[in-house]
Specification:
Layout lengths: L2 E5 L4 E2 L5 E10 L5 E9 L8 E2 L4 E3 L2 H9 L3 H12 L36 H5 L3 H9 L3 H10 L7 H5 L3 H24 L5
Antiparallel strand pairs: 1-3, 2-3, 3-4, 4-5, 4-6
Length: about 200
């Protein structure tokens, strides 16, 4: 049975200006694991339907899923709302019976979306300032940091090794790799073209 794990008080604003109240939900899967997703309810009486993200996490138990939910940041919620409103692929939503949603979502399948979906583009954030990149990375969980590293090919380390690396080290790895690539790119742009 699905349950609301955390309801957030700060509204999340979509790119079109619609405001939503987010709530992190979770449910046990058929194999005994737990999955988590985010539901977004329109804040005002607008003619806007609620939206639900696809699975955002899989955890070994309910307690770990609650821990995941309590660590979600405004940056993550904005990204989850954007993914829910503009999915890259039609990933199955968690199977939930909820009075807010008129029909149950289809059951979760074993087919996952991209295995290394990044919640932010570190190069885009870096262009706004290294300090901002550090703050946003520090707000993310370790598995998000690993996904950023893999999605942008910022390290040649194996995924299993990255997964056991402390988040503070992953932040430094990302910042260093982004800084290096950005410097190399800027140097290449300044190199005169030979005729």
């Amino acid at each position: 049975m699905a349950e609301v794990l955390v309801q957030f008080t700060e509204p999340v604003v979509a790119k079109d200006g619609t405001t939503y109240i987010a709530r992190a939900c979770g449910a046990e899967t058929t194999n005994g694991m737990w999955q988590g997703w985010i539901e977004f309810l329109p804040q005002a009486d607008e003619d806007v339907e609620p939206v639900r993200s696809s699975r955002e996490t899989t955890q070994p138990n309910r307690q770990d899923t609650i821990y995941w939910a309590t660590g979600l940041t405004p940056v993550f919620l904005e990204g989850a709302l954007d993914r829910a409103l503009n999915p890259l692929t039609k990933a199955p939503a968690p199977h939930v019976l909820d009075p807010v949603f008129s029909e149950p979502a289809p059951p979760v399948s074993s087919v996952e979306g991209p295995s290394h979906e990044s919640v932010l583009n570190p190069f885009s954030v870096y262009r706004k300032g290294e300090a901002l990149l550090r703050r946003q990375l520090a707000a993310l969980s370790g598995w998000h940091l690993v996904n950023i590293i893999l999605a942008y090919e910022l390290s040649e380390q194996r995924e299993a090794d990255l997964a056991v690396t402390p988040p503070s080290v992953l932040v430094e790895l990302i910042v260093s790799a982004v800084r290096q690539r950005s410097t190399e790119s800027a140097s290449a742009d300044l190199t005169p073209v030979q005729d």
